Amino acid sequence: MSKIKTIARAVALAGVAATFSTAVSAACSNQGSLDARYCDADNDLIADIPTDSSQWLDPETLIFAYTPVEDPAVYKEAWADFLTYLEEQTGKEVVFFPVQSNAAEIEAMRSGRLHIAGFNTGSNPLAVNCAGYRPFTMMAGDDGSYGYEMEILTYPGSGIETIEDIKGKKMAFTSPTSNSGFKAPSAILKADYDMLPERDFEPVYSGKHDNSILGVANQDYPAAAVANSVLGRMLSRDVVTDDQLVSIYKSQTFPTTSYGVAHNLKPELQEKIQQAFLNFPWEGTTLEEEFSRNGEAQFVPITYKEHWDVIRKIDAANDVSYSCS
């Protein structure tokens, strides 16, 4: 069976199965901010695994997607060795699905077409509440340190030396669901500098962090807010150079991309997937080759309730709603 046919069959089966997995028992004791199709009886802020085994999914082919922070083609190869390991640990075929936007990734999991994913920092709350996403790990260094910072970039000679100099100019964001590409800088500009989009500067949207970084480097945007983890990888690949960019702001450290599963995968399968992440041998792999550029060397356990607390606070400051549409 061809790869294309395999994906199509997996997507079709997942879509059919998803129609049987959306009902939540009327006896659900707690829903929190989750969509009505999910339950959070244990109050950990993520969707519970269905108690009714008839609602569990055990697909022949697992679909994996990585957050679209950069060109998906770059990451299909980077994840190749890990996905081979995941196949060995689960006994299932695993297919890399190159999503083009955060919204498309969330919708793919919500509709049952996506089983395992890496969601970027800002997308996590929407993925958790609207798609039944259950995050359990993220990348970290050998010493257990993790995270990235939001930086606001400009280019030499732009006339921008401080945040206030952005007034009256264009400011590039990535997308409204991105923490470092939109939500964090919006909250910081408002709270610390009394600067609002439209009133004080013209907001534009590039779609992705690499687009914003390239836009500043090529002097298409006077300023842009980006994740410096993406910037670091682009610098290490010589996509851009240090002399093309100037950083005028660096935030506190935020949690990085989380990895997790759809809530209604069979519990035993969820456990196998989780152990595959946490036990993956990094050394000499394509994953190490790409992500060691940021100093990342392992997957570490996380909880959405604890590690995404600061992100939920940023969302609250921005009046972000987790309602699903």
Automatic annotation (TrEMBL):
Q: What is the lineage of its organism?
A: Bacteria, Pseudomonadati, Pseudomonadota, Gammaproteobacteria, Pseudomonadales
What Gene3D superfamilies does the annotation carry?
A: Periplasmic binding protein-like II
Under InterPro entries, the record lists: PhnD, Solute-binding_3/MltF_N
Describe the family membership recorded for this protein in Swiss-Prot or TrEMBL: Belongs to the phosphate/phosphite/phosphonate binding protein family.
Swiss-Prot/TrEMBL keywords: Signal
- Domain called Solute-binding protein family 3/N-terminal: residue spans: 61-294
Q: Which NCBIfam families match?
A: 3A0109s03R (TIGR01098)
Q: Which organism is it from?
A: Marinobacter suaedae
Superkingdom per UniProt: Bacteria
Give me the gene this protein comes from.
Answer: phnD
| Any Pfam family the entry gives | Phosphonate-bd
Protein name, per record = Phosphate/phosphite/phosphonate ABC transporter substrate-binding protein
Signal sequence range: 1-26
Q: Does the keyword Signal apply?
A: yes
